[in-house]
Amino acid sequence: MELPFHLASSKSRPPQSPRTVASADEAAPVAERLVLIADDYADTRVLYVEHLREAGFRVVEATDGEQAVALAVSLRPDAIVMDLSMPKLDGWDATRRIRSAPGLEHTYIIALSAMDGEISRSMAFDAGCNDFIAKPFLATALVQVLALHFRGDRSGGSSPPA
User: Fold this and answer.
1) Domain contains 68
2) Whole-number pLDDT of residue 162
3) Model confidence pLDDT, tens digit, residues 82-93
4) pLDDT band per the 50, 70, 90 thresholds, residue 118
5) Is residue 14, in this structure, part of any structural domain at all?
6) Which helix (H) or strand (E) holds 127?
7) Is 13 part of a structural domain of the chain?
8) 1: pLDDT strictly greater than 90
9) Total domains present in the chain
10) CA–CA distance from 48 to each of 3, 23, 101, 137 (Å)?
11) At 94, which CATH number?
12) How buried is 152 (Cβ within 10 angstroms: 0-12 exposed, 13-18 middle, 19+ buried)?
């Protein structure tokens, strides 16, 4: 089975060496980690991709929930950034399917949503997301949350309630 996808590339700027998040020690855990960005808005994906690549991440994009599930199963990314409102399959159902796939039960998933309320957050965590970021937000915040996760410091995100 072939899946149509492409590794995101920066078309508007020449390649740059990865910038560090804060120091070389903090950046080391992000080097070459694969992050799947699932968002139906191209401009939003470009913004996330640019910042993540500059921080040293490899990035692949999905334009809807079905594609996100297929790419997650085939590529097994280190983390997934999941918009909750997408066509074909929303982020909640895509997350549930990813969580049920063998080997993806513990993949780090960040939910993104413009619906910033306790119900949306609760639904995201119930679906299996590890963190929640309300839109709009600075793309640098996404980089920081991912870097904190890969360093093992979970104090920077909005984690599920205990």
Assistant:
1) yes
2) 40
3) 999 998 999 999
4) confident
5) no
6) helix 118-127
7) no
8) no
9) 1
10) 22, 21, 26, 11
11) 3.40.50.2300
12) exposed
